[in-house]
TrEMBL record:
Organism this protein belongs to: Paenibacillus pectinilyticus
InterPro entries associated with the record: Bact_solute-bd_prot1
Record's keyword terms, sorted: Signal
Claim: Signal is one of the keywords in the record: yes
Signal peptide positions on this chain: 1-20
Name of the protein: ABC transporter substrate-binding protein
Length: 538
């Protein structure tokens, strides 16, 4: 959505109407035992008796469900909605977002059908709609719901602040430490090699995996490492997630396109001398022919995964769940065998850095519209509903796991997912649109078949995550006209450096161009001002 387009839509809109929910009166057959008072004590203690008894219609625009393109069923076929409505004394009208969620939301706004509750998949979009007058501040309301903020880690709450105000609450919780270092332990053992713990060891193992016939087929068809080049052309920090070379940069304590704060000052790693060293190391890997040459055409996770399944690469960055049976079956089917893949700690770099990735930045947000605030009782009921979603322990299994005795069971108080192959999951796939409340550490939700191995993998990964309260918030500045050109230039130059199309001897000229032509210092000044405004920097 272009900013001017959104502003025009919002300026046309008088914030008066709400979406009327067409709800039937079907009885809730799946409600947990907790009452609404127990679930939302903050609301019931402060609301007037007539407000607590009144049934409100609450509209919710959902962009954070996990099956946004799956139509929601009628209320009679939706026991989770029945539970929600009964426990919160409300009629719920939930509209799903999807790929064109901005267009749908703008249409609601221009039609005077402004939702009471709105969620956003990213902070930047939430800020734009807040600035345009859609979202309200929650600071005063939260005083009446003191238990709600306690449901979130402080690091997730902080990004909900903008210009000194709380504009929303954390929505879906991202999983940290998903992608880690994997090594083919079968090859390692055959070649009598040790797990690499530093860059030189890493390069040596990669060379052996490439040239010493680790799979024993007598062919020169293996590689030590595989990476990918996402569609945005970035070797470093990218919205596409870890791509392989990111972790090489982290060994040197730096990351292209990553903005950090050191000693109270903003730094950009694109010009850091250590970045030059990391680029040289990557170039050495490519020149040594230990990197699968397909990396320049691997632009999504599926293509990267296929390399692991085929069993022709020895070291890669991939998902923590690759030891799960569904994944090992893909390895068997694609490569004819299942290598002993082992997840390892990141090698320690020359400056003592041992970083895998950054901790997740809380992107998604759920908040109230200013329209909902026109009715104090409705606003409180909407907040009561949000508190219910994130704090009600009795409702959680239904929200996160679906329908009792259909998609999950409970034995001695412990929930367990039912094998999806025993029922037609497509029939209840819509249930995932309530599951955004699931905890990132919920092993029941993820349904690990080998929990000991998979949980151990994530424990390794989360031990090497760097704090991150800066990215991607600093890229949300629309006042920087050179932002995209600067990013494109840096990406192109780094790609040229590692492939030899541009000699690293020209590094200083590259830095000067970033500073002079692309106004990098001006960007740093803007980043500093933005972080000061957000309270991250003093």
């Amino acid at each position: 959505m272009k900013k001017n387009h959104a502003s025009a839509l919002l300026s046309m809109t008088v914030l008066l109407g709400v979406v009327a929910a067409g709800c039937s009166k079907a009885e809730n057959t799946a409600s947990p035992s907790a009452s609404v008072a127990a679930a939302s004590s903050g609301a019931t203690q402060t609301a007037k008796p007539q407000e607590a008894d009144k049934k409100y219609k609450i509209s919710f625009y959902n962009t954070i469900g996990y099956r946004l393109t799956t139509p929601m069923p009628a209320k009679e076929q939706d026991p989770i909605r029945q539970m929600i409505e009964k426990d919160n004394n409300m009629d719920l009208d939930m509209t799903m977002g999807g790929e064109n969620w901005k267009d749908k939301l703008n249409l609601l706004i221009s039609s005077n059908q402004i939702p009471d509750i709105v969620s956003f998949p990213d902070r930047a979009s939430a800020i734009k709609y807040y600035d345009q007058g859609l979202l309200t501040d929650l600071d005063d309301l939260l005083k009446e719901f003191p238990d709600l903020p306690k449901a979130f880690d402080p690091s997730r709450l902080e990004p909900m602040k903008y210009k000194g105000h709380t504009i929303g609450l954390p929505a879906s919780e991202a999983v940290g430490g998903v992608n880690g270092w994997w090594i083919n332990n079968t090859w390692l053992q055959k070649l009598n090699l040790s797990i690499p713990t530093n860059p030189q060891d890493l390069l040596n193992v990669m060379k052996a995996f490439t040239f010493n016939d680790p799979d024993g087929n007598g062919k020169n068809d293996t590689y030590g490492f595989v990476a990918m080049l996402p569609k945005d052309g970035s070797l470093g920090y990218s919205t596409s997630g870890p791509v392989g070379f990111q972790q090489i940069f982290w060994m040197f304590g730096v990351q292209p396109n990553f903005v950090d704060v050191k000693d109270g000052k903003v730094v950009v790693y694109n010009t850091d001398p250590k970045t030059k060293e990391a680029l040289q190391f990557i170039k050495d890997m490519i020149d040594a022919k230990v990197v699968d040459p397909d990396w320049v055409t691997i632009d999504d996770g599926l293509k990267r995964d296929s390399k692991m399944y085929q069993g022709k690469v020895g070291i890669m960055i991939n998902d923590w769940r690759r030891s799960e049976p569904a994944e090992t079956k893909k390895m068997q089917d694609a490569g004819g065998s299942v290598p002993d893949w082992k997840q390892i700690a990141p090698p320690k770099g020359p400056y003592g850095d041992q970083i895998l990735d950054v901790k997740p930045f809380q992107q998604s947000l759920i908040g109230l519209s200013k329209e909902a605030m026109k009715d104090a009782g409705k606003a409180k009921r909407a907040m009561q509903f949000i508190q219910y979603l994130y704090t009600n322990k009795d409702a959680y299994p239904f929200l996160a796991y679906g329908i009792k005795d259909k998609s999950f069971t409970v034995t001695n108080g412990t929930p367990k997912l039912i094998d999806r192959s025993t029922y037609n999951e497509k029939e209840i796939e819509w249930r995932y649109n309530y599951a955004f409340v699931r905890k990132a550490t919920d092993s029941v939700y993820f349904d690990f078949q080998k929990p000991d191995i998979t949980n151990a993998n994530q424990k390794i990964n989360t031990s090497y995550l760097k704090e991150n309260n800066i990215n991607p918030r600093v890229f949300d500045d629309p006042s920087d006209p050179m932002a995209q050109d600067r990013l494109k230039y840096a990406n192109e130059m780094m790609l040229k450096f590692v492939t030899g199309k541009e000699p690293l001897a020209n590094w200083d000229a590259y830095v000067k161009t970033l500073q002079d032509k692309f106004k990098l210092n001006d960007a740093i000044a803007n980043y500093t001002k933005q972080l000061q405004g957000d309270g991250v920097l003093k």
